[in-house]
Specification:
Layout (H helix, E strand, L loop, with lengths): L1 H4 L3 E4 L3 H8 L6 E4 L9 E4 L2 E5 L4 H6 L1 H6 L1 H6 L6 H6 L2 H7 L5 H9 L2 E5 L5 E5 L11 E8 L4 E6 L7 E9 L2 E10 L6 E5 L6 H13 L3 E6 L14 E8 L2 H14 L5 E6 L14 E7 L8 H11 E12 L5 H17 L9 H7 L2 E10 L8 E9 L2
Parallel strand pairs: 1-2, 12-13, 12-15, 13-14, 15-16
Antiparallel strand pairs: 3-4, 4-7, 5-6, 5-7, 8-9, 9-10, 10-11, 16-18, 17-18
């Protein structure tokens, strides 16, 4: 029908975008109303998710018990989307086809890596990713959108900076572990876009040289702030007598215990303490540590200044703090994204800040930078500006 009507024919679902097109002067010669096409407004479960009909309205998605049960982030976010008139008329399929960077559901589909189901003119079905390269969608009628359920997918929305930018984070989850993550960005560009975010595990080999350089110069009694799962323990050399590792996470410390058992064969003493870097345990006395090591931990400490002040206190005169951290880029465009991504990023990355300026933090508590090297690692730039070096306490 649409092909026979000619290039000026458009599908109409809720009508919101058709009216906007006509106001903008786009030629509309024929309207093909989809409101009575059976099956386009359903919400159905399938094996690991939900299939949402293209004519599902925003209001229906916000009030559907099935959506609340299987994709709670959508149901909880959507009552705040637009106004009641638009929520009751506008459809999720219309959001996607319009390609408007301000439309929220298109961002949710991108972050979720949703599947889009199209009916072609010849009757065939085409299923494509919402993240189709170049934003190109096939010709035909969008009939449904499929998303995985909340057990396999977590969506996190940040609409607090609208109309400057809207962010949606999508996390793929398998057996309790995050296996993939994407951020969809709206409002800021001419079209919505999505970016894959790196996971730590595939980057271990890439980041290993940073760890090796930082740990190589450690000597004597070492305090490692944010020891985590103990990735640095096998890297300590013979000049190190003892490593005191502190971390706030008992789960990570349990993993570090296993790593410590391996290095104990080299007669390296390892003591693991659960606690906060902002207030070190009293057993670590003033001036009792030769080296402080911190690798990608200051970003997630709630009060990084307090943690560094504690490191300054326990270091002996002539001791050193050896560090590698990611942080604020000197490039204004990257720093802008770091500032705007950080509120959302903190919620899914254990409190990690993308925009802390490590060198300024060190100087603010009385450290002198003996060596500092900065630059980008091979990851998305907002997460990739590295500070690596050595600092000495000034008394």
């Amino acid at each position: 029908m649409k092909a026979a009507a000619g290039p000026g024919a458009v599908y109409m679902a809720g009508g919101i975008d058709v009216v906007n097109r006509m106001k903008s002067g786009f030629p509309v010669t024929d309207l093909i109303h989809l409101g009575r096409v059976a099956g386009l407004d359903g919400i159905e479960e399938f094996d690991d998710g939900l299939r949402l009909g293209a004519l599902v309205t925003h209001d229906r998605m916000a009030t559907s018990p099935l959506v609340l049960a299987r994709l709670p982030a959508l149901a909880q976010t959507w009552p705040d989307v637009a106004n009641i008139r638009i929520r009751c008329k506008a459809t999720i399929g219309g959001n996607i086809i319009a390609g408007d960077p301000a439309y929220d559901f298109a961002l949710a589909a991108l972050a979720a890596d949703a599947r889009l189901h199209f009916l072609a003119a010849d009757g065939s079905i085409r299923n494509v990713s919402a993240r189709q390269p170049g934003g190109g969608l096939p010709d035909g009628l969008l009939t449904a959108i499929s998303m995985r359920s909340g057990s396999a997918l977590r969506l996190i929305f940040d609409r607090s900076l609208r109309p400057i930018v809207t962010l949606v984070l999508g996390l793929d989850i398998d057996k309790g572990r995050i296996t993939g993550r994407r951020v969809a960005i709206g409002c800021a560009y001419a079209a919505p876009l999505t970016v894959n975010l790196p996971l730590d595990e595939p980057l271990l080999q890439q980041l290993l040289p940073y760890r090796q350089r930082v740990v190589a110069g450690a000597a004597g009694r070492v305090l490692e702030i944010g020891i985590g799962s103990g990735l640095n323990l096998p890297l300590y050399g013979d000049a190190v007598e003892e490593v005191i590792g502190i971390d706030i996470s008992p789960e990570l410390l349990a993993m570090a215990e296993r790593a410590a058992a391996m290095v104990s064969r080299r007669r390296l003493r390892v003591r693991l303490l659960e606690g906060s870097a902002e207030r070190l345990p009293c057993i670590i006395a003033d001036g009792s540590v030769d080296t402080v090591v911190v690798t990608w931990a200051l970003c997630s400490v709630p009060d990084a200044t307090a943690a560094l002040a504690e490191a300054h206190r326990v270091l002996r005169p002539g001791g050193s703090l050896r560090f590698v951290e990611h942080g604020r880029s000197p490039d204004a465009s990257v720093a802008w994204w770091q500032d705007h991504l950080t509120p959302l990023w903190k919620r899914c990355s254990g409190g990690c800040h993308l925009n802390r300026q490590t060198d300024d933090l060190l100087r603010s508590v009385g450290f002198r930078l003996a060596r500092l090297k900065t630059g980008y690692a091979q990851r998305p730039r907002p997460m990739a500006f590295m500070y690596e070096g050595q600092a000495e306490p000034q008394r």
